[in-house]
Amino acid sequence: MSLVRVAQRRVTRPRRTQRAVPVLSRLAEIAPVGMLVTGLDGAVRYLNPAFTRLLGHKFEVGHNLDGFGLIHPDDTGAARQHLVRLARGEAAHYRGEHRLIHADGHPIWVMLAAALSTDDDGHPDCLILQVTSIELQKRAEEALAYSESRWNHALEGARQGVWDHDIRRDTMFYSRMWRKMRGIPADEEVDGDQVKWLQRIHPEDRPHVMANVHRQDQGDNSFDALEYRELTRDGRYIWILSRGRPVEWDEGGEPLRTIGTDTDITYLKTVEQELAAEKERLRVTLEAIADGMIATDGEGRVTFINPAAERFTGFSAAEAKGLLAEAVFPLRHAHSNEAAPCPAVACLTHRQAMEVEDEVVLVSRDGQARDIRCSASPVTTPDGKVSGAVLVFQDITQSRALQRQLVHSASHDVLTGLPNRAAFDRAMSTAMTSARDGQRQHCLLYVDLDRFKPVNDTAGHAAGDALLKQVAETIRGACRGHDLAARLGGDEFAVLLEDCPLANGRKVAEKIVRAIASLAFSWNGRLYRIGASIGVTVIKSRSESGLGYLGEADAACYAAKAGGRGQVVCFAEMTVDQPQ
Fold it and tell me: Could you give all domains of the chain from N- to C-terminal order, each with its CATH number?
């Protein structure tokens, strides 16, 4: 039965060990202790060179150990029970002595230390296993029956200090190596008083030691190791792993003597603390950055989402995990409102980094739309396989709105909001091109206001500007939806009527004249009335007058003003009666 079946559930997470920062990766690579990281399903995620040197195995990432199948058959029961408890979250750490099977088939005694790594939500993620050879220790223990000096020399060779607690006499024996790791001279007598020993233990570790040291003396099978910091003679603290168990009992089964070893594990603890600190820095960084970040597995399902992404998408981290990326991160094209592909999915499909170059909008769960810029990059394993993707995006709603505003300002009149002269010239060029084949014709209206100057002179430019805004709205309201009404400058306007014969163009012009004449503009309690004169010309295959279409419309408008204002004059009719 594999670990995945005894765990409550399988939680897929990015492989943190593979993504560790370079300095931590190097620490693991050069560490003398064998390190192995597996998923809860037993699949290998990482092993360092020391592990391969110790056991001879060169497992590929993804290889399944089937519940840590390296353990010797005689030891699998206890080991499996502890690993199962870790996978269930019933324990955070386990340390025990076991025999592991070397690649060539022979067993090796190791100290197996296992720890459960959880994700940010506290869900089990993977098992981190450390193995240290205790072959010398075990050989020494076996040699106790033959020669005390032999096992003592062996332990010293393994740099493990030995202690011997005679419970009947309440005396302690400490080996030379035990003294050496604490900076105590080899020939110095050490007071075995427990109170003095406890005083050397770090204050933060003392309660734990005091609460559990008796379990070691009593031979509690579920507890035979203590980890704590002890003060050395040179004033520094070292981490001690103390293992021991009773070796003699009285007739009533009470322990009479306990023997154990102490190992300096300061280096291992330093590595653990560095890894924990780096993980915390990474967590704080991801929570602090303003950019949204979403990570997926190889199938495109969300495995991680940072707080910024939670705000932008409307999904909490718990809700998003396990969902397809396109469900959490729905994109639409900004101009067509059609669905746009998710870059994370495209990244997994094409196995390369993807950047969305089109203008896209992210629609959150509450319907709020945000203009965003986003890109996705693949996450690869050391063997080159794509195991997931990381999607990063920014909210650029304000910058894109400013950009659109600038584009609009470049082609529109600031005061009235109508297209400006540059936009009108482009529209005229397009209209003339479409009429050259003789199949289409358009009408051009040139509008000049009557009696506008007195308003500016008597009421001021503010009044004139307000009146021009009303005039612009009036002209726009009198045209068809697709017609172009533009302000050419001052109080002059132009209207381009696409696919419009002259008769209909005249009607629109007359409608505009009547609408402007009906305006009742009030400013500071005084009522002003203005009018408009309009010249009309037809845009066809070519201009016959040589004035150009705008010149024809301007000439017709001049004729309308000369004829009494508030009139509409068509250039074609004017040229029949008054040849130019």
Answer: 3-133 (3.30.450.20), 138-270 (3.30.450.20), 291-401 (3.30.450.20), 412-577 (3.30.70.270)
